[in-house]
Amino acid sequence: MFKLNVKRYQYYCKVGLILLGLTGYMMKLSLLFSTAQSQNQIPSITTSYAQVKEDTPINEYAFQIETFDPDPVPDPLTYMITGTKSIYFYCDENTGTVTIRTPLERDDDDKGVFSIGLVVSDADYTVSKDIQIIVIDANDNQPIFENTPYNVNVTENTALDTVLFRVYAKDADAGLAAVVKYSIDEVSPTNGLSHFTINENNGDVKLVKQLSFTSLSTFYRLKIKATVSSPSQHFSIHCWIFTSHLLEALFWIPH
To answer: Please, how many CA atoms are within 13 Å of residue 179, restricted to the half-sphere of its CB?
Structure first.
C-alpha cells in the first residue's frame, strides 16, 4: 500500500511554493504536514493470552493478534510471532490471523501452558509482547483401571449397603476430559444385575439385594465400565464376586 513520506513531500512543497512566492500558503502547508506527521502514534498489542484446543487440525484457526492503533486513520500493520514455541503456528503477516502449523501436544508440554512472542510493526514503530498459550486438553486417552484384579468373596449374610470393593480408573488427560464415571455394564448371570450397584463418581460397588448360596448363583461376573466425557473413550474390566456359604464362613479356620 502507498504511504506518504511526509518529510520528503513537505520539503518539495516548501521549495515549490517559495519559488512561486507563495510564502503564506507555504506556512499553512507546512503546518498541515507537521500535524499529519505528529499523528503517527505507536500501536499496541492488546492480546494477552490465547486458548487453543490440543486437537485443532493443521491450517485451522488458532487465534487472532489483536491490536490498537491510536492514529485517527490506523496505519497498515505487519504481524510476526517469535520464540521456540512459535513453530506450532503460522502467522499471516498482513492480517495477524494465527493458524496451526504442527500438531499441539498438551500432555508433554509444561502442563499445557507456554509463551510465544508477538511483534507488530507500522512504517515507523515496532512493538513486541509475550503472551501465554493455553493448550486445552483433548480427550485422547482412555481411562485405565488400577490395582486389578477386583475379585472378592462375600458371605451370603452380608448386610445390604455394604461396600464390597472399589474400582479405580485413571485418565492421562486433564480437566473435564479426565473426569471418570463408572457404571455396571452387565452381570452374569443376568438376574444378578439387581444385587449390585456402583457409585458413578468413586467406583464403590455395593450389595443392595440379599445373596443366597443355596437358592441363587454362587458367583457373579460384573462388567464394569469407566467412561470419560467423550462416549468414545471408555474401558471395561470384569470383576468376580463369589458367594460363600454361611456355614463355611462359620467353620472356616485360617491356616
So the answer is: 6
Q: Hey, what CATH topology would domain 144-251 get?
A: Immunoglobulin-like (2.60.40)
Please give the torsion angle defined by the CA atoms of residues 203, 209, 210 and 215, in that order, rounded to the nearest 10 degrees.
-110
- Kindly state which CATH superfamily the domain 44-136 is placed in: Cadherins (2.60.40.60)
Residues 150/139, Cβ–Cβ less than 8 Å: no
| Cα 144–chain centre separation | 21
Largest CA distance in the chain: 127
Which residues fall within 8 angstroms of residue 29, CB to CB, at 6 or more apart? 10, 13, 14, 17
Write out pLDDT tens, residues 4-22. Answer: 444 444 444 454 444 455 5
CA–CA separation, 246 vs 169, rounded Å? 33
φ/ψ of residue 177, rounded to 5: -70, -15
Angle at 131 between CA 127 and CA 136, to 5 degrees: 150
Cell of 76: 497498515
Closest to 68 measured CA to CA, from 117, 114, 125 = 125
169-196 pLDDT, tens per residue? 987 665 555 688 999 999 999 888 999 9
Torsion, CA 37, CA 42, CA 46, CA 49, rounded to 10:
140
